[in-house]
Amino acid sequence: MPENKTGIFPKGEKAPAEYFTGTVWIKLLVPNDPILSTQIGNVMFDRCARTNWHTHPGGQILIVTDGVGYYQEKGKIIQVIRKGDVVNIAPDVVHWHGASPDSEMTHLAVNSNTQTGVVTWLQPVTDEDYTR
Ligand code: MN
Q1: Which residue of 3, 88, 127, 130 lies most exposed, with the fewest beta carbons within 10 A?
Q2: 46-94 pLDDT, tens per residue?
Q3: CA 101 to chain centre
Q4: What is the topology classification, in CATH, of domain 42-132?
Q5: 52 Cα: distance to centroid of ligand 1 (angstroms)
Q6: What pTM value is reported for the model?
Q7: How much distance in Å is there from the Cα of 77 to the middle of ligand 1?
Q8: Distance from the CA of 32 to the center of ligand 1, in angstroms?
């Protein structure tokens, strides 16, 4: 989301280039809660920005709150996700998520069962992966 546009939540911090391609902002709304075993973050992707491939040992739910983006599980086709969409990601499924080429995308990321771990990062999503 451009600097001049205001979302529901603060933009937070720039996500590390080690694990993301392009410009991504992350605001941790609920830091990992050991009683609830849940962590919730707001994640804003500029056009073309995306996560690396990764897994969540405890699963993840994405709630798209703005824009148009992509979600892909390894070995499957890219799915277009839009404001209002909810994506359930089972534990240990290799996947990535991000904005589309023509729109930013913002989602809430709900990480569940965090006692098993939050995320395991893998390789970057290449331009070839992204445009396929
Ligand atoms: Mn994920």
Answers
A1: 3
A2: 999 999 999 999 999 999 999 999 999 999 999 999 999 999 999 999 9
A3: 15
A4: Jelly Rolls (2.60.120)
A5: 9
A6: 0.94
A7: 16
A8: 15
